[in-house]
Specification:
Elements: E1 3-7, H1 12-17, H2 19-28, E2 33-38, H3 42-49, E3 54-57, H4 68-73, E4 81-86, H5 91-99, E5 104-108, E6 119-121, H6 130-141, H7 158-165, E7 174-178, H8 180-185, H9 187-195, E8 201-205, E9 224-228, H10 233-242, E10 245-248, H11 251-259, E11 264-268, E12 284-289, E13 292-297, E14 304-305, H12 309-320
Parallel strand pairs: 1-2, 1-4, 2-3, 4-5, 5-6, 7-8, 7-10, 8-9, 10-11, 11-12
Antiparallel strand pairs: 12-13, 13-14
């Protein structure tokens, strides 16, 4: 199998705009190995989205003229690159394309770097988005690419995680949660929200560095809470898919839930900058501050003020069909 290498941009918001492109090439190039070169923090997103992508983190200390070639020739399992897609559009990323000896090099033209590409599209950096990324693919293929709302496929090995979850608890539908920072900053609101449920199982993702186990001792015993500290992308992908939905204060986890086809409730302290309109499923966003919940904004509906926590709980019950 030949290889395709995709270099992602550095900014997280720009990485999100490449997801429709990644969704398309995952479907079009099923007979290729697709390798994603990412900068810090974005590797987790892509790794969770598609188990068939090979994701490689490009350390910042190696991203210089001396280290680029060394990184390319030592990228695990990359040996026969047919296409290099460059979403950064810099001289360094152009040199990286050359270092992989890619047969075809595709990217955004930006000053001198256009000499590196076999096909380039001229778009100002500030105007690059999901649409221009798909136009880049269209220009290379010389054919139209469908515009669809993104929804990634079911993980092939989800059942193994389900067996692991229910080793010590009765099997039942669970809500996947991650808002440990919310619990530490606004404990009353967080406890109040989840304690309004009855006999509900919650699986909380708490990575080791945020493992605040003691904070969960004050939850009402009327529900069951399982704390899960494994941050491996494959485990998070499966947990999201097996859940009936996601409640989180983490915009990245909300995005992953939407991309994997789950109903998501996103608790926001401030407006997030990630583009959820790219996905078939979009979150209901709930405003939160030190005084309580402020407003609720379901997808494709106007925002409304929140009168009580019961209003949010009712919306979650409806959304998750509880």
């Amino acid at each position: 199998m030949r290889d395709i290498v995709v270099l992602l941009p550095k900014k997280l918001s720009a990485v999100v705009e490449t997801i429709p492109f990644l969704h398309q090439i995952g479907k079009k190039y099923k007979e290729h190995n697709i390798h994603i070169i990412s900068h810090k923090e974005s590797d987790f997103i892509v790794d969770v989205l598609n188990q068939k992508f090979f994701v490689h983190l490009l350390p910042e200390e190696k991203y210089n003229m001396a280290g680029i070639h060394h990184f390319a020739v030592n990228t695990n399992m990359v040996s026969d690159v047919e296409i290099f897609f460059d979403f950064e559009g810099s001289v360094k990323s152009g040199v990286l394309a050359l270092s992989y000896s890619a047969e075809k090099k595709v990217g955004y033209a930006s000053g001198l770097n256009k000499v590196f590409y076999t096909f380039a599209l001229e778009v100002d950096e500030g105007k690059r988005n999901a649409e221009s990324n798909l136009k880049l693919l269209e220009g290379y293929l010389e054919e139209e690419v469908p515009r669809v709302k993104v929804l990634f496929d079911k993980p092939e090995d989800a059942v193994t995680t389900e067996e692991e979850i229910f080793k010590t608890v009765e099997a039942k539908p669970f809500i996947f949660c991650n808002f440990s920072s919310q619990i530490s900053e606004y404990p009353d609101q967080s406890y109040d929200l989840l304690d309004r449920f009855d006999e509900q199982l919650f699986v909380h993702w708490l990575p080791e560095e945020n493992y605040l186990k003691d904070m969960f001792k004050d939850f009402s015993p009327c529900n069951r809470h399982i704390l899960h500290g494994d941050s491996s992308p494959e485990k998070i992908r499966k947990l999201i898919y097996l859940s009936i939905g996601v409640i989180t204060s983490n915009p990245v986890l909300a995005l992953l839930g939407c991309a994997l086809g789950k109903k998501v409730f996103l608790l926001n302290k401030k407006a997030n900058k990630l583009n959820f309109s790219l996905f078939q499923y979009q979150p209901t966003q709930i405003g939160l501050n030190e005084t309580g919940f402020t407003n609720m904004h379901p997808p494709e509906e106007p925002s409304s003020m929140v009168d009580s926590v019961n209003q949010i709980v009712d919306e979650i019950h409806t959304g998750f069909e509880l």
